Amino acid sequence: CDLPGVDRNGCPNQDIIEKLQALHDLHKAKPGDEDKWRAFTYSKVIRLLRNHPKRIRSIQDAQKLKGIGLKTAVKIMEIIETGDLRRLKYENTESVQVTRVFQGIYGVGQSTALKWYSNGCRTLQDLANGKGGVKLSAAQKIGLKYYDDINDRMPREEAGAIFSLIKPIALSIDPDLFVEIMGSYRRGKADCGDIDIMITRPTRDGKTHEGVLSRLLQKLHEADILTEDLALPEDPDDLEAIYRGLCHLPDKKGAKQRRIDFLTVPWKNKGAALLYYTGDDIFNRSMRWKANQMGYSLNQRGLYEGVVRDTHQRSIKTNAGTVLASETEQEILKILEVPWQEPHERVR
Ligand code: DCP
Ligand code: MG
Ligand code: MN
Question: What is the rounded distance in angstroms from the CA atom of residue 315 to the CA atom of residue 311?
């Protein structure tokens, strides 16, 4: 049901999905690994249900779907029979509700939201008033100011329209640039939470995209396409940089503020970056899992062999390994023995 043009509400199991989504959100907003794991499990179940063409009518129906266990099947039956889920009521405490609202502010995670709650803040207005001595960062202030816009998803046509303004401006800086839109847009989704744009440049003539991002950002501000910066790259001239900001359609009255990310990568990492930033996140997780099963390691820079990690601090690499593939998505998937999948098929 996630395909463009297919109405989400056309899902035969939409009522079940909505309740499970609420349960997912509750678990996600809570601290602790067990809640995180549960949220992950529910997100997988929701995906299964979305792609299931038939109405589920019994515990057996539910359990026939690979990945749905007895506990979840029982919950699904409760929703079918009573139209409700008791679990939702007692999980829905004030702190969960309030911190969920706070986490809708750009860049605010669990710990910040809980800290504000413990400082006595209960509403967005409390935060704006600095209640309990709460101080917002510059990005959080922007996140609060455009709270509704940022939490709204845009129609893919709007993402496409904004991108079609940006691409020629980028190419006017250097016609050899590779400029592509990734994320949910590339997967063909009917609506997008943000616009994810990659910029790189082939190096056959010895040149790179060095310096392009800062010039592009300036031009986009001048053209009234970019409206606010949320996170600037440490060094925009680095060949690998990330920018996060807000943009809108200029010259359109009442145009909403939309989230936009720019990512620059060295040409040799283009495929790995495309793969990672096209997602979706569950697809990425299964690709990383596949790589690990084969003794490899996959990230947004490439597929590596022989990576050795510190036994205590897994984030530290004691051996960086050697790269097996990184320039194209095809090379990476081939080594992983995963049949080629078009972006719109990359939902697991
Ligand atoms: N990504 C990931 N893990 C994360 C965040 C991102 O694997 N924790 C990857 C997969 C995403 C891609 O980056 O598809 C882009 O991230 P977005 O947050 O922009 O997600 P999408 O574009 O997929 O969805 P949305 O329409 O909500 O922006
Ligand atoms: Mg996105
Ligand atoms: Mn993004």
Answer: 9
Q: Is the CB of 279 under 6 A from ligand 1?
A: yes
CA-proximal residue: ligand 1, atom 3 (nearest): 281
Q: Over the range 290-313, which residues count as b (16 or more CB within 10 Å of their CB) and which as e?
A: ebeeeebbbbbbbbbeebeeeeee
Contacts of 140 (CB under 8 A, 6+ apart): 105, 106, 107, 108
Listed in order, strand segments (DSSP E) in 19-68 are: none
Angle between helix 94-102 and 110-118 (nearest 10): 120
Cβ neighbours of residue 313 closer than 8 Å, sequence gap 6 or more: none
Residue nearest to atom 28 of ligand 1 (CA): 193
> Residue 195 Cα, ligand 2 centroid: separation in angstroms?
5
Q: Answer yes or no: is the C-beta of 284 below 6 A from any ligand 1 atom.
A: yes
185 lines ligand 1 (CB under 6 A): no
pLDDT in tens, 115-151: 898 889 999 999 999 999 999 999 999 999 999 999 9
Does the beta carbon of 2 lie inside 6 Å of ligand 1? no
CA dihedral 302, 305, 310, 314 (to 10 degrees): 40
The ipTM estimated for the assembled molecules is 0.98
Ligand lying closest to the C-alpha of residue 279: 1
CA distances to 2, 45, 62, 70, 80 from 13, rounded to whole Å, are 13, 12, 11, 18, 9
Output the CA 338–ligand 3 centroid distance in Å.
Answer: 25
Q: Which two three-digit tokens encode residue 237? A: 């001239």
Q: What is the DSSP string of 236-268?
A: TTSSSEEEEEEE--TT-TTPPPEEEEEEE--GG
- How many angstroms separate the alpha carbon of residue 154 from the centre of ligand 2? 11
In Å, what is the CA distance from 133 to each residue of 33, 139, 307?
30, 18, 46
pTM of the model as a whole: 0.77
What ligand has the least distance to the C-alpha of 184? 1
**Scanning the structure block, which residue is given the tokens 């040799």?**
268
pLDDT tens-place string over residues 240-266: 999 999 999 998 999 999 999 999 999
